[in-house]
Predict the structure.
Amino acid sequence: MHTVQLDHHADFDAWRAQARDMCAARVHPTQLRFVPPDREDTLLDFGVLGLREDRRTVVASKDFMDRAARVACHSHPERYDRLYRLLWRLQDQPSLMRNTVDDDVRWMVEADKAVRRDRHKMHAFVRFRKVGESAPLESGGRERFMAWFEPDHFIVDLATPFFTRRFPNMDWAIVTPYRTAVWDGEALRFEAGGTRDDVPETDVVEDQWKTYYSSIFNPSRLKVAAMRAEMPKKYWNNLPEAALIPSLIAGAKTRERQMMDSLNHDPNPIAEKAIYQPEQVDTDLAPPDVAALWEQVEHCRRCDLWEGATQGVAGVGPDDARLMIVGEQPGDKEDLAGEPFVGPAGKILTQALEEAGLSRGDAYVTNAVKHFKYEVRGQRRIHKNPSVSEIKACNVWLEREIELVKPDIVLCLGGSAARAVNGKAIKVGENRGRVLERADGLKFFITSHPSYILRVQRYEDQPKAYPDMVADLRKVADLLAA
Ligand code: URA
């Protein structure tokens, strides 16, 4: 029996190097033990193996290795042995991973799910407490934060790079029982674990966080059972907002009414700091209804835009609407509010629809891209156009919305929406104002994007832009009335 000692719990790199070597030298899985620090295996024989000379080339797909890297974080003490057994078997059975009833394959799939679920919980439920400043802020000091978290698996290395992207501008440490992650703005390093007592219970930003949580709490999307499943009691101790949940649920109906009255939300100054970001879970590309589609969009990682966005924003409106309106992507206000067209462009849209005799409430309003793309300039997030690949990556959601709602006509606002619905680039100027038809029979119609109207109104260089848009919308109204 040969033994490989691993230095830390999620030591995937060491496993990979050793596993490749051993597998090349044809060391059978029964002759090898991988021993991470959490494994208390007393019957180990530390003998050294004579490795065979006739080495073979070891092959494993990228997908397998990506999964293996996550499964290495699982808390099962024999996870590395099981991964090695799979790697060994893959050499003679290249399509083994497609055999979903195989015990080893099933185990790997389940272990991977458990690790991803745990990572998602960590991203969602870590709450930082302010513990001071590295130096006075005026002289370039940085705020310092700490958080306590108890993961089920060894996910600190896997899950904490997310926080470096999310909170690059503050110093923070996340303490867990087995490992602590420390970020100083430049490098992420790992130290020994700690205890709950290492992290203060409350801090000065907690009230701000509660205010923020109350303000983003969306009563019209309240699902109590889903919320409880998502936020198990185990995490409540760490969550300042947990104390608010009962009263928010109780007041949800009143708030929903208030929200319908006023769809405008000012950006919250601490939104940048305190954002709930769900991590990837399996996405079902054909959700059965619009509510399920919302859930899926929330977890979508088909491109990178989710990283900077507060949340995914899918469509709103009757799911049997005859008119579907497609914009480009949520803007700053939509990203915070979680609804399309609630900002300045939304006001222009609502006004133009009314002038054309159309009711916005009767339409299903959505976007070609479901996450906000922007660049930060000073304190502001400035809209950036989505790329063709981002539009394509998001197209599954738009197409599913079209399948579910089955509109009589789709109104595309601007070039990105037109490209998404048409499936390839199409010029707005040459094609606006008339009914177009896709190969599958879907009727669509192109007009200007309301942000374009806002822009040209500001500089007064296109006085006809808005009347032209209203004229286009009148044609849509006539079509629907016919
Ligand atoms: N612009 C869009 O295209 N969509 C929105 O939801 C808001 C602004």
